[in-house]
């Protein structure tokens, strides 16, 4: 939880105060060593966020008997920022999940055999790089960076931003989490905030899933305060936050200050409204009622949705205004199959129609290796914008629409699902043998929408 807070705040503030380069020297770094076999890039930004419960140094007050026993994690989150940097999804992995962990190098240098174990054991036994390998093997999502923070660092960050408002549905007296507060709303300092995100049995139903939901609500409250609470325009408060954050975290060696600035500039328009929290779908683990396992096919479908997620739109050149947004239902589409694979045009037409496009015809085209989005030369003024609406729905690299259509073979009418066919250019989608697929519309499937935590979620959990 605390690492999510750290990364989001660093990303939203460094862009405006690049002169804080001296702070970079405070950051602790670890090498990014996960091997050559990794998932492909999709244009999204994926940052692993891990909370460390190390009791060394200033953290010994949270369990002096655990000193010298290394570090564990109860918090594993993946911050997924869309390719267009306009949406963020915070994916939580329950610590009690039993998963397949690949063979890894252990903290002591010995080889850890692969097998079914609790997900946080990847970090406990193999460190951050084993955790990355495990998550990438489970999700097929490439992780670009990682951030790790400990208890003391979390407290310092919350104190630096002046505390966060929480809401308790009942009184809490949890000596283990060091949280004692009456019911109702409170602005909590770092120590109390740490207790709030750590307590498990004093709030909710006592499960790790309930605690995860509370952590996600806390993060949305943090982001709302940062973006709306004046931190970005207060140099004194910002300085205190940045120095606290830099001293609190350990990051990968590739997350340089220049890289942070690049990321911060790309996400500077994100607010709490664009952040969605979701927990990986799980179900009871039959051999042990105290553990869970990923629920299938829901988890598999969810990870696929994340990999293919959101619409990517071009950024207007300086001095030029953005073209008006073309909605899917405004675009008439002719789908032609140039792959030689029987039924491909109808399959793709169905997928586009499901996303609201007014598909009007399907047919064949001469075999081609390259998928293309085309518009008529006579539609040179409006055609590119309408074609671009189709191009942004294709997976992988965005394709540039081209002028000029090909002659269809055996074109047949398609029963459009749009109530009233629109005017405007007819866009031709020619499917090549390199067909990348159609992006899903959301990183969160409809089946999980009721599990989403966002700025509108009741904070009194």
TrEMBL record:
Domain of life (superkingdom): Bacteria
Gene source species: Nonomuraea turkmeniaca
InterPro entries noted in UniProt: LytR/CpsA/Psr_C (IPR027381), LytR/CpsA/Psr_CW_biosynth (IPR050922), LytR_CpsA_psr (IPR004474)
Family statement drawn from the similarity comment of this UniProt entry: Belongs to the LytR/CpsA/Psr (LCP) family.
Pfam family, one: LytR_C
Domain Cell envelope-related transcriptional attenuator per the UniProt entry, residue ranges: 72-226
Residues in LytR/CpsA/Psr regulator C-terminal domain copies: 330-435
The name this protein goes by in its record: LytR family transcriptional regulator
């Amino acid at each position: 939880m605390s690492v999510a807070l750290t990364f989001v705040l660093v990303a939203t503030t460094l862009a405006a105060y690049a002169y804080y380069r001296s702070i970079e020297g405070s950051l602790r770094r670890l090498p990014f060593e996960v091997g050559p076999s990794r998932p492909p890039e999709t244009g999204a930004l994926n940052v692993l966020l891990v909370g460390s419960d190390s009791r060394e140094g200033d953290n010994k007050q949270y369990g002096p008997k655990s000193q010298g026993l290394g570090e564990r994690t109860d918090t594993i989150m993946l911050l997924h920022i869309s390719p267009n940097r306009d949406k963020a999804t915070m994916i939580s992995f329950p610590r009690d999940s039993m998963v397949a962990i690949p063979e890894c190098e252990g903290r002591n240098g010995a080889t850890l055999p692969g097998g079914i174990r609790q997900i946080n054991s990847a970090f406990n036994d193999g460190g951050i790089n084993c955790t990355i390998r495990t998550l990438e093997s489970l999700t097929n999502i490439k992780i670009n960076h990682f951030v790790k923070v400990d208890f003391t660092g979390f407290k310092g960050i919350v104190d630096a931003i002046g505390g966060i408002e929480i809401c308790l549905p009942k009184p809490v007296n949890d000596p283990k989490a060091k949280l004692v507060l009456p019911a109702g709303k409170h602005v909590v300092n770092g120590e109390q905030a740490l207790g709030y995100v750590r307590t498990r049995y004093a709030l909710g139903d006592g499960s790790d899933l309930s605690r995860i939901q509370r952590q996600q609500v806390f993060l949305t409250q943090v982001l709302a305060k940062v973006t709306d609470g004046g931190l970005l325009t207060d140099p004194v408060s910002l300085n205190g936050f940045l120095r606290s954050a830099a001293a609190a975290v350990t990051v990968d060696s590739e997350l340089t200050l220049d890289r942070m600035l690049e990321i911060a500039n790309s996400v500077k328009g994100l607010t709490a409204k664009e952040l969605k929290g979701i927990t990986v779908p799980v179900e009871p683990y039959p051999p042990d009622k105290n553990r869970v396992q990923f629920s299938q096919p829901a988890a598999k479908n969810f990870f696929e949705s994340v990999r293919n997620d959101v619409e990517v739109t071009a950024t207007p050149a300086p001095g030029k205004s953005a073209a008006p947004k073309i909605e899917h239902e405004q675009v008439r589409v002719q789908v032609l199959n140039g792959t030689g694979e029987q039924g491909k045009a109808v399959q793709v037409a169905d997928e586009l129609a499901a996303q609201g496009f007014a598909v009007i015809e399907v047919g064949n085209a001469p075999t081609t290796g390259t998928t293309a989005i085309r518009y008529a030369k006579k539609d040179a003024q409006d055609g590119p914008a309408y074609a671009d609406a189709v191009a942004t729905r294709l997976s992988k690299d965005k394709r540039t629409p081209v002028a000029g259509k090909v002659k269809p073979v055996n074109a047949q009418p398609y029963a459009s699902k749009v109530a009233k066919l629109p005017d405007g250019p007819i866009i031709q989608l020619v499917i090549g043998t390199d067909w990348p697929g159609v992006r899903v519309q959301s990183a969160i499937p409809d089946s999980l929408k009721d599990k989403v935590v966002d700025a509108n979620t009741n904070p009194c959990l």
